[in-house]
Write a structure and sequence with these properties.
Shape: elongated
Number of domains: 3
Structural class: mainly alpha
C-alpha cells in the first residue's frame, strides 16, 4: 500500500469528528453477528447480559481505520511469508480500502454491525465480501497483538494532533504578548499582590509550560511508535514474518523486542495520559488566573462574549464559563490516568481482558484535552487586558517594597536589616493611608537615615521592571527578546502592538 494512502488512513482516525461530518454515500451491506472469531470451543451461545458486558465495539469502533491499516500491513507481511498469493493480497487490500472509504462516509456503519469488537467487524465484512479469502487474513496474528497495534496507531495520531493544538495556543499567547508588550500587571504569590510584572511575561510563563507539554508528548511518541504486530497472542507468530519491514510499512520506528511485553503492557498509554494530565493542569492554572483576573474585584482582563455566558436569573452577569470548564476538564483527564494506573497495577503477564478498559479513558482524555486546548486558544485570541486597571493594581499593595529594600542595600544597608526597615515603613504607610512613593523624606528617615531624594526614582513601576533585566526576568528588554524568539520560532511575523 503506498505511503500516501497509509497517511490518509491514519488521518481519518486522528480526527473522527471530521470523518463523522460526512454521512453521504451509498450504504453498504453490513455483516450480521452470526459468527464469532472464537466460537468453535463453545457449545452454548453467550448470555445477552454477558454480551452487553463483554462487547467493546460500542467504543473500540473508533479504531476501525487503524484496524484496517494494520490489516493491510499484515496482508503484505503474510504474503511475503508465503501464506497468501499476490492476487489474494491485492484482493484483500482493495477490499480493505473499500471498507475504509465506506466507514469514512458512514462512521456509524461498524456500530450497526452488532459485532463483538472492531476486529470482528472488519473480518466479518471481509468474509462477506470475499468469502473464504477473508478468513485467511488472520493467519498468524491474534486480537492481542492486533489491538495493541491499533491503539498505538490511534495514540500516535492523537499525540501529533495535540502537539499541533498546543502550538496553536502558543501562537495565541505570543501574539497576545506582542499586543500587550507595555501592559504592567500585578504579579501574585498566595493570591496577594507581590511584585509588578509585564503582561507579556505572564503570557510567556504559560508559553514555557506548553513547550514542555509538547516536548513530553513528543518524547512519549517515541515509545508509542513501536510495532507489536507479529507478537500474536503472547509467544510470537509461528510464521516467518519480517517484522521490521512490517513495522516500517505501518510507520513505526521499530518492531517490539518481547512478545509478552508487547501484547500485555500499556505503559505507552499511561505515559500519554500522564503528559496529557500535566498539560491539562497547566491549562487549569491558566484558566484559574483568568477566572479571577476577569472578576469585578480584579478587573485586569475582559473575556470576549463569545467564550462567556450569562445567568438565567441575574441579567448583569458575564460568567467566564470557558475558563471554568477548562479548569473542570483537568480533573476528568487526571481521573483517566488514575483509572488506567489502577487497572494495570495487578495484572499478571500476558494479556488479560482487563486491558479492554484501556481505551475509553484514553479516548476520553484525548477528546477533552483537545477541546480544552482549542477553547483556550479562542479565549487567548479574544482576551483584552485593562491596562489602566492593571497598572493601578500593580501600584497598590506596596508591591514596590522589595525595590525599596534594594535601594537601601545600594546605600550599604545589609539586606536583612533593609528588609526589617522597609517592613516598618510599610506599617507606617498603612497607618498613614499612603503608598510608599507618597511618603515624605522625613517619614522615610523616621526608620532609616540613608534615604535621599533619589529614592523616588526607585519606587516607580517602570524603574522596578527595568532593574529586572536578568535572563528569565520581567525586564522589558528581556521579555521582548523572549517574545521575539518565540515568534520567530513559531513563524509569527505580524506584530500587533497596543499603544498606551
Amino acid at each position: 500500500m503506498p505511503a500516501k494512502r497509509r497517511r490518509n488512513i491514519h488521518s481519518h482516525a486522528a480526527n473522527p469528528a471530521k470523518s463523522a461530518a460526512s454521512k453521504a454515500g451509498a450504504k453498504s451491506s453490513i455483516a450480521q453477528p452470526n459468527a464469532q472469531l472464537w466460537g468453535g470451543r463453545f457449545e452454548h451461545g453467550a448470555d445477552p447480559l454477558f454480551k452487553l458486558f463483554n462487547d467493546s465495539l460500542p467504543f473500540d469502533h473508533r479504531l476501525t481505520q487503524q484496524d484496517i491499516a494494520g490489516s493491510i500491513g499484515w496482508a503484505k507481511a503474510i504474503t511475503a511469508a508465503g501464506v497468501l498469493t499476490l492476487p489474494e493480497c491485492e484482493k484483500l487490500i482493495n477490499a480493505l480500502e473499500q471498507l475504509s472509504d465506506q466507514v469514512t462516509r458512514d462512521p456509524g456503519m461498524p456500530l450497526r454491525s452488532g459485532q463483538e469488537d472492531v476486529h470482528s467487524f472488519v473480518e466479518s465484512w471481509l468474509v462477506e465480501k470475499l468469502g473464504p479469502l477473508g478468513k485467511k487474513l488472520h493467519t498468524g496474528r491474534s486480537r492481542n497483538d492486533q489491538v495493541a497495534t491499533d491503539i498505538r496507531l490511534w495514540t500516535r495520531a492523537q499525540v501529533d494532533a495535540r502537539i499541533g493544538e498546543i502550538l496553536a495556543l502558543q501562537r495565541a499567547l505570543v501574539t497576545l504578548a506582542q499586543r500587550e508588550h507595555a501592559t504592567i500587571i500585578p504579579g501574585y504569590t498566595h493570591v496577594q499582590r507581590a511584585q509588578p510584572i509585564l503582561a507579556a511575561h505572564w503570557c510567556m510563563a504559560y508559553f514555557e509550560m506548553l513547550s514542555r507539554d509538547a516536548a513530553r508528548l513528543a518524547d512519549a511518541r517515541t515509545r508509542i511508535n513501536i510495532c507489536p504486530l507479529g507478537s500474536a497472542a503472547l509467544a510470537g507468530t509461528t510464521y516467518p514474518i519480517d517484522r521490521e519491514t512490517l513495522a516500517e510499512d505501518l510507520g513505526f520506528d521499530a518492531a517490539s523486542d518481547n512478545s509478552l511485553d508487547a501484547t500485555s503492557d500499556r505503559d505507552f498509554a499511561l505515559e500519554t495520559l500522564a503528559a496529557a494530565s500535566i498539560c491539562a493542569v497547566h491549562l487549569s492554572r491558566l484558566a484559574e488566573d483568568l477566572v479571577f483576573y476577569a472578576s469585578q474585584e480584579f478587573a485586569l482582563v475582559e473575556m470576549h462574549d463569545s467564550v462567556s455566558s450569562g445567568s438565567s436569573l441575574m441579567p448583569q452577569k458575564k460568567n467566564p464559563d470557558a475558563a471554568e470548564l477548562i479548569r473542570g476538564k483537568s480533573g476528568r483527564i487526571i481521573g483517566d490516568l488514575v483509572g488506567l494506573l489502577v487497572t494495570l497495577k495487578g495484572l499478571p503477564l500476558a494479556y488479560n481482558k482487563d486491558l479492554q478498559e484501556d481505551k475509553e479513558g484514553l479516548f476520553d482524555a484525548m477528546d477533552h484535552l483537545s477541546i480544552s486546548l482549542r477553547i483556550a486558544t479562542r479565549v487567548i485570541e479574544t482576551l483584552k487586558f485593562r491596562p489602566e486597571n492593571a497598572k493601578r493594581a500593580a501600584q497598590g499593595g506596596y508591591s514596590n517594597a522589595t525595590d525599596l529594600a534594594d535601594y537601601l542595600v545600594s546605600k550599604g544597608v545589609p539586606f536583612r536589616d533593609a528588609h526589617e526597615e522597609v517592613g516598618k515603613l510599610v506599617r507606617h504607610a498603612l497607618a498613614a493611608g499612603k503608598p510608599l512613593e507618597d511618603l515624605t523624606l522625613d517619614e522615610f528617615r523616621l526608620h532609616t537615615k540613608v534615604v535621599g531624594k533619589d529614592v523616588y526614582k526607585w519606587l516607580t513601576l517602570e524603574a522596578g521592571l527595568a532593574k529586572r533585566e536578568v535572563r528569565g526576568g520581567t525586564g522589558p528588554k528581556t521579555v521582548a527578546r523572549a517574545v521575539a524568539a518565540a515568534a520567530a520560532n513559531l513563524g509569527i511575523k505580524t506584530v500587533q502592538v497596543r499603544r498606551h
